[in-house]
C-alpha cells in the first residue's frame, strides 16, 4: 500500500529495544562488577567461582593476544572485521537465497533448511576424509578419501537429490492434501529434529575438517584474506550470479518469479506450478549444500549442528530482506554478516549470533515485510 | 526386559516428566487455547530457572525466589508479545524462537559468567537447599516397591510429590479457565480472530494474557526441572521446545490431560526405545553413542506423522483443533 512506517510501531520497537538494552547492560554491569572484585565475590558466587576465574584469565589472555596482534601487523581491525563480515554474508547468502525461494513459492518457513547446510558440509567430509566411515545400520567400515573437489560435487548432487526426494514424497503430497501452512511448518520442525539427529548419528558429534592444508593469507595492506576464502567468495559470487541470471533472464526463472508473485494466477496462465516448486526445492537444497561446504572451509571445520546454529541467522537475513524476495535475502545476508562480524569488536565472540537475533526481532517489530518486501498486512 | 519396563515406569512418574507436563500445560494455553505459535517456550523455562536459582543463591527465601522467576517470565512475555502479537503466525514463531535463543546465548556468554555461571550453568547444590529444607520427609533413602529414592535430596520423593501436585493443580486451573467465558474468547480467537474482534473483544489483550499466563506456567515447569537437575542453558535450547510441541500434540492440544499424558508417553517411550534397541540391535550396527540420536530421530518423525495424520493427538477432538494461519 504505502511505504510509510507506522509511527506507533516504531515507538513500540524503540521502547522494547531500550528496555532490553537496559536490562542487558544492567545484568552485564552486575556480572562485571562481580568479576572486578573477584576475591571478595568468590564466596558469594559460590558455584561459578572456579569457572568464573578460569573464564576471566582466559578472556584476559585472549584480549592480550588480540592487542599484541594489533601491534605487530598494520591491519585495520574495523576494516578487517568488515571484510570478514562481507565474506561471511556472501557465504550465508547461498543458504538464505534457497530459504527465501522456498518461502516465496510455497509460503513455507522451512525450519529444516539448516540441516541441508550441515548435510552438504558433512557429506563432503564423508567422501573426502582419510578416516574410516560407515553408513547408519550398515555394519561395514570403509575409507573413500577422494580429493576435495569431486567429493564436494558429489555431495552437492546428493544434497540436491534430497531436495527432490523431500518435495516428491513429503511436501508435494502435503500440498495436494491442502495441509495448512502452519501444519507444514511444524512438519518441517519435526523434519529438522529428525535430520539433525540423523546427521549426528551418521557423522558423529565431533567437528570434522574438510581439508588439512593450511591456508595462506594474502595481505591487502589494510586487511588480509585467506587464499581459500578468496576461492570460496568467488564461487559464491558465481553461484549467486547464476541464480540471479536464472531468475531474471530465463523462461523458467520468470515462471518461478510468477509463482512467487501469485501461484493461482501463474497456474491459470499455464505455468506448471508443481514443476517450478520441485525445481526450487532442488535449487534451494543444492545451494544450501554449496553454502555449507564453503562455510566449513571458511571456518576450518563443520559439526553436525552448524546448520542449526545458522538457521536463525538465515531467517534473520531473509526477514530483513523481505520474506520471499530472493535478492532481499542477498542484501539481508550481507547486512547480517557484517553486523555479526563487526559486533565482535565490542561484544564477546560468544554473543555474535545473539546480535543477529536481536536485529531479526527489531526488524519484525519495525518493518515485518523487510527492506525490499512489499508492504502487506502481516497480522 | 523387566529392567526396561521398570525404567519406563520410573520415567512415567519422574519429576522431569512432571516438569515437562507443566511446561506443556503452559504451551497448551498458548497453542491449544489461543492458537499462538510459541516456538520459544524453552526461553520462558530458562528465565524461570535463572530467576529462581540466582535469587536463591543470593540468599532470598524460596517464595521470593519463585516470585522473581515468575516475574522474569511474565516480563519476557510482555516484552515479546507487545510488538509481535499483531503479526501473522509464522512471524510470531520466528520472533519467539529467536528471543528464546537470545536468552540462551546471553545466559551462556562469558560476560554474564558471574551471574549465570556461563555455559556450565549453576550447580544444583547452590540453589536446591531452600526447597529441600521444606521437606517433611526423613533425610534418608526410602524404598517403595521397586523404587528407591532419597527422601529429600535432589530428585527425591519430596520433589516427586510436589511436582505432581503442582501439575494437577495447573491441570485443574486449565480446565476451569478453558470453560470460563475468558477461555471461550481465547478459543474464539483460535478459530477466527476477526469474528471475535467484530464482537467487540480486545483480541490483542486476550492474546497477551494467554501468552503471559502460559509463559509463567512454563517458567514454573522450568523451575521444577531445575530442582531435579541443575540450571544449564544448553539443556533449554530449541530441541526442548520441539519436544514440548511433540508431547503436547501427542497427548492432544486443547485438552486438560493431553499435556500430562503426552509427557508420560514421551519420556517412557524414549526409555523403552533406548532399552529395546540396546537389547536387540547388536552394537556393531548401533553403538551406545548412537542410541540417543537414533531415538531422537524417531521423536522428529513422530512429530511429523502426528501433525500430518492426527493433529488432534490421542485425546483431542478433530473439530476442536484447527491449525489456522
Task: Describe the secondary-structure layout.
The complex is a heterodimer of chains A (379) and B (325).
Chain A: H1 7-36, H2 38-44, H3 49-72, H4 77-106, H5 113-128, H6 148-176, H7 181-203, E1 217-219, E2 224-226, H8 227-249, H9 251-261, H10 263-268, H11 273-298, H12 306-321, H13 326-343, H14 352-366
Antiparallel strand pairs in A: 1-2
Chain B: H1 2-13, H2 15-33, H3 41-57, H4 62-84, H5 89-108, H6 113-116, H7 129-133, E1 141-144, E2 147-150, H8 157-178, H9 181-191, H10 193-198, H11 203-228, H12 238-251, H13 258-280, H14 288-309
Antiparallel strand pairs in B: 1-2
Helix pairs in contact in B: 1-13, 2-8, 2-11, 2-12, 2-13, 3-4, 3-5, 3-11, 4-11, 9-11, 12-13, 12-14, 13-14
Describe the structure.
The complex is a heterodimer of chains A (379) and B (325). Chain A is mainly alpha-helical and 379 residues long. Helix content of chain A is 72%, strand content 2%. Chain A is built from 14 helices and two strands, in the order αααααααββααααααα. Chain A has a two-stranded antiparallel ribbon with strand order 1-2. The radius of gyration of chain A is 23 Å and the shape is globular. Chain B is mainly α. In chain B, a hairpin with a 2-residue loop joins strand 1 and strand 2. The termini of chain B are far apart. The model of chain B has no long low-confidence stretch (mean pLDDT 86). At the A-B interface, helix 1, helix 3, helix 7, helix 12 and helix 14 of A face helix 4, helix 5, helix 6, helix 12 and helix 14 of B.
